[in-house]
Each structure stands twice: as structure tokens, then as C-alpha cells.
Amino acid sequence: xxxxxxxxxxxxxxxxxxxxxxxxxxxxxxxxxxxxxxxxxxxxxxxxxxxxxxxxxxxxxxxxxxxxxxxxxxxxxxxxxxxxxxxxxxxxxxxxxxxxxxxxxxxxxxxxxxxxxxxxxxxxxxxxxxxxxxxxxxxxxxxxxxxxxxxxxxxxxxxxxxxxxxxxxxxx
Length: 172
Description:
The chain is of the alpha/beta class. It is 38% helix and 17% strand. The chain contains 6 helices and 8 strands; from the N terminus they run αβββααβαβαββαβ. Strands 1-8-7-4-6-5 form a 6-stranded parallel β-sheet, sandwiched between helices. Strands 2-3 form a two-stranded antiparallel sheet.
């Protein structure tokens, strides 16, 4: 169990902030597969109000936002690129990565995050599992997650212990 693993120091503790961003999902179409991704994309990239709130909260909740190593989980490639662009413009160098990102560019993005040259990677359907990034100290859940398993996999990306972090900051 998660609390036992944290208490035994097998996993890193975390501080979790569920934030209200005033995003109204009631008009977004829903099907058996979940929310309509193109509608979510339009909603999340249509203006800067939500990204300003995310940046504000990163600054308030993270002790050293300028030194963070974050993973942001996005709804689409356009959303990831939008977030990376806005974070970079705010002084937090960031990169968008997806399954469409070629292997060398993805490896370079991961190396840049590990080395601290990049502060955040904004991902689309990547990094839920199968990647070892113990340096990650911040998780940004920027999309609705309908699956408890996907949520736990994404949370797990930050729970690996690392000598440079004492906890993981999670903004949802």
C-alpha cells in the first residue's frame, strides 16, 4: 500500500493540491471512451486564463519553481505545446513530448529534464509507465483522468526517491 511504502521510505512522500480552475466541463461531449479530446483541447488552449492559474499555483505551492523538474500530463499534442510555450515564456524552460516525438528528441528532452536545463516536460499519452525519472519533483495533472489506474501510474512518476528531493508536489 502507498502509505506503507512511504513510511518504509521505499517511495517519496508527496503534497497533493487539488485546485479549482473554474473550467466547466459540462458542455464537453462524453462517450463511452470518455471526454471528447478535441473539445477538451479547445477548452484548455482557447485562452491563457487556465495556464496563468497553473503558473501562479506552481509559484505558490513549489518551494523553488525555478529549480523544479516537472511532468505535466496533457490532453493533446496542441495542449502540450501550448503549455510548454507558456511555461517557457514565463521563464520555466519546457518541452512538449508525445508519441509523435522522434526517439532522439524524446531522449534529449528526458536528459534535459534530468540535467535541469528544462523545468517541465508536457506529455501526451507518455510516461504513465515504463520510464524511470526519480528526479521528477512536481506533477501537473492538466487533464481529466477517468481511470484510477492511469492516475496512480502518473502519480508514480514522481514517487521514486532521489537524493535531491524530499517530497513531490502534485497539482491537480
